[in-house]
Specification:
Helices cover 12% and strands 30% of the residues. The protein is mainly beta. The chain has two domains: 38 residues, no CATH class; 201 residues, Galactose-binding domain-like (Jelly Rolls), CATH 2.60.120.260. Strands 3, 4, 5, 8, 9, 10, 11, 12 and 13 form a nine-stranded mixed sheet that branches. A two-stranded antiparallel ribbon has the order 1-2. A two-stranded antiparallel ribbon has the order 6-7. A hairpin with a 5-residue loop joins strand 3 and strand 4. It is rod-shaped, with a radius of gyration of 57 Å.
Amino acid sequence: MAQLTCPQCGTTFEAQGAEFCPNPSCGYPVAFMKPPQEDDTQALHMERRPGEQAEEPAPVAVASPPDHAPTEVIPRVVVPPPIAPPAYHPPSPPRPPRNLTPWLVGAGALVLVAGLVVAIVALSGGGTPGDGGTGSPTATTSGGHTVSVQALDPSHIAADAESTHPDVTLKNGTLLTYRLSNTLDGDLKTAWNDGDENGYALGTHLSYTFDQPVHVVAVVLVNGYAQSFSNEDVFHENGRLKTVTFDSDDDSFSTTLQDTVDAQRIDRDFGTTSKIVIRLDDVYEGNKYTDSALTEITFMVEA
């Protein structure tokens, strides 16, 4: 392998792969170094014949080293001036979520009230309490005759209970009443509630007196305290009528009511009577209050 000798520092090194003198303090370019000629080297070491004068070898021209190693020319790169960042505007605080609870409660109340009113209308066969009956429902009398019926106008009914819870004024000034006339007002948010502090007022009589005798053939009612649209527990917190006895001028009839907030119809020919008296015999107990409640009642009479 060819050896090179640095003409600047005298360091000898292998030529293969070298670009500069390996002496750290030198760095002379290999491109400017001339490799030794094998023929010249051999000629310098040839034996002379006796009396033969050795010829001086021709001087080897050595290129003068440059003052410094060549440098690579790097094209000038023009760096554009920095672009100022956009002005910072803090984001607006998020809007608080809308409280949909009042809307949902209100919508639920409307749906439930509408549903109960529709149920009462359907069970009464047309007409709502207070309109005198606008449809043409029918009922079967005890004699097997089919007659047209209508809801008796509540303005022709006087309601009285042997036991009634006292009126209550809420903190916001709202007055709550629990009188029996609430069962005739067509308002499902009001109800009768007994005033017995020691029990469910068993044996209490609820009297409905008509301003003139009428032929009653059915009763439609909404049991318990039906304000479950505002608090689903209200219906079950208060007691509901279970077993009751209906007394008219000429008839007495006992039945078991359903424990439901839905309107229910009792078909019974009470005959022509001036009143209907309901006696409370048993209750579905409330899980919070020891009372009894009734929300609405409608008397279906022969038209």
